[in-house]
Specification:
By secondary structure, the protein is α+β, with helices and mostly antiparallel strands. The protein is built from ten helices and 15 strands.
């Protein structure tokens, strides 16, 4: 059951805006495809993509997330127990047809994007009116990266999304693996920076449920449905973290936070945070939590 209640408040009082399902599945699909970057953090590539005469199916939406991972999006108007299995069928097809997907990426986004597709972390995002408790349990036990997202329309022009369950998939490492990789990425002999990098990782992974860590060569991305933080390999005296916050809404502190909108950098996010000590990490935690909330 949907727990969120939305009210329209005026000087005369508050009136509840009743949630509703879409008239058709296509209504949800059209809205998400037209706004996929804002709603899901995914670049839209194709709609109703044919899997050919053998599989005889059509993938509702194909996209590429900010980390370069292929994304299959499946939609259902209401509750449909078959949505996960259907989506996994198409996701497996996609993994078996990598060159075809890379050709699509090349046509839409260019050769550089096609060469950087992250095949270690393909994703399935289901957008539906609701899910069964068996769906929620199955996702948490699965080895693929799956997000179950519930939608609702409110009134004439409000649209809401709620992530109910996330499976991290194989792209997330356990704590020991994360610490090991962090230790190997720091300059030799700099134990203080190694400890700081490990502490940053623990704080970001501990912000809440449903966090996935995606490892890329130039950065590590931390995401819920979308990226909320990117951490670059530590430098000799500091660690750079990029957050998905609007720098214009943050009181920037020289040497600590910086607006990198339009400035080339590894990872995603327009707010750069430079961490040199545990004290800096403590100062940054409110920013980490705010970015997590936006995702």
């Amino acid at each position: 059951m949907l727990k969120l209640r939305l009210f329209h408040a005026t000087s005369r009082g508050a009136s509840e805006v009743a949630p509703r399902l879409a008239a058709t599945e296509a209504c949800v699909q059209r809205l998400v495809e037209a706004n996929m970057q804002a709603l899901l953090g995914v670049t839209f590539l194709a709609s109703e993509y044919s899997t050919g005469p053998v599989h005889a199916g059509r993938i509702d939406s194909l996209g590429l997330d900010k980390n370069g991972a292929p994304v299959v999006v499946e939609y259902k108007r209401g509750l449909d127990p078959g949505v996960i299995n259907q989506g996994l069928f198409y996701l497996n097809w996609l993994v078996d047809h990598r060159s075809e997907f890379e050709h699509l990426v090349r046509d839409q986004l260019g050769a550089t994007a096609a060469a950087q597709v992250l095949w270690s972390g393909p994703r399935l995002i289901c957008v539906a009116g609701d899910y069964t408790r068996y769906d929620l349990h199955a996702v948490r036990e699965h080895r693929r990266s799956i997000d179950l997202v519930r939608y609702r329309f409110f009134g004439a022009d409000l649209f809401g999304l709620e992530t109910l369950a996330t499976a991290a998939g194989l792209s997330v490492q356990n704590g020991a693996e994360r610490r090991s990789k962090a230790d190997r990425s720091v300059p030799a002999g700099n134990q203080r920076i190694a400890e700081l990098a490990a502490a940053i990782d623990e704080v970001l992974m501990g912000l809440g449920d449903g966090i996935t860590k995606v490892q890329r060569k130039q950065y590590s991305a931390y995401r819920r449905l979308q990226n909320f933080a990117s951490v670059c390999p530590p430098q000799r005296t500091k660690v750079h973290v990029y957050l998905s916050l609007d720098p214009a809404q943050v009181d920037l502190v020289p040497g600590f936070t910086r607006n990198v909108t339009g400035v080339g950098h590894h990872g995603t996010g327009d707010l750069e945070v430079r961490l040199r000590s545990e004290k800096d990490l403590e100062r940054a935690q409110d920013l980490f939590r705010a970015s997590y909330a936006t995702a």
